[in-house]
Specification:
The protein is an all-alpha fold and about 210 residues long. The protein is about 75% helix and about 0% strand. Helix 1 crosses helix 6 and helix 6 packs across helix 8.
């Protein structure tokens, strides 16, 4: 039992080191030797857990996919709800996504920016974004079924807009040092303003 826990801890350390190096130095510029050096391990340790650098990256991206989709799906409602309750639900969803980004900064940077020189990894990243859009669209369809949204709303297009909003805000927030207007906002303020904009646009409700 204790040995299994140690192994899982070591594997997680390898993934975290790889994530940081992929995000800061680039996937192509990161060698397995760089990853193991980061946590004072041997290359043999790395290959005990992963067959290759690509397998390590794919596993990390899959971990992120599960957590992000779970956050969005929590917004799926069974019973009819008021608009204000829907807004609070959206804030909760955005809060979970932003919290995930805060605690998984390097993974989120990879998901947002992609790994365009690696087709297999890039397809995995794009699949995450498509899955997130579908999850948002399913929430919107349910809202239409419950009479909360008008029937003419195009849920697919709205889901694309929501994803674009989240991606744009997250990229700038994660690079807050280069974006002063984001650096001065708390995460709670960022979530609140992003959720309000999604609901009410420029002419938002007070």
């Amino acid at each position: 039992m204790h040995q299994q826990i140690r192994r899982e801890k070591k594997k997680q350390q390898l993934k975290e080191a790889a994530l940081q190096l992929f995000a800061t130095n680039g996937y192509e510029n990161t060698k397995v030797s760089d990853i193991v050096k980061h946590i004072h391990a041997s290359q043999g340790t790395f290959y005990w857990y992963f067959a290759s650098k690509e397998e390590c990256a794919l596993e990390m991206i899959e971990d992120g996919r599960k957590q992000l989709l779970n956050s969005i799906k929590q917004g799926y409602r069974v019973e009819k709800f008021e608009v204000e309750e829907a807004l609070n639900s959206t804030k909760s969803i955005f809060g979970q996504i932003f919290n995930f980004a805060l605690h998984n900064r390097f993974l989120m940077q990879i998901i947002l920016r992609g790994i365009h020189t690696q087709p297999v990894l890039q397809e995995k990243v794009e699949a995450i974004k498509r899955a997130m859009e579908r999850a948002f669209a399913e929430n919107l369809v349910r809202a239409k079924e419950l009479g909360v949204l008008p029937s003419h709303v195009n849920e697919q297009f709205q889901a694309v807009l929501i994803m674009s909003l989240i991606e744009g805000v997250l990229i700038r927030w994660l690079d807050a040092a280069e974006n002063e207007q984001f650096a001065n906002l708390s995460m709670e303020q960022l979530i609140d303003q992003t959720a309000h904009f999604e609901f009410y646009g420029l002419f938002k409700k007070k």
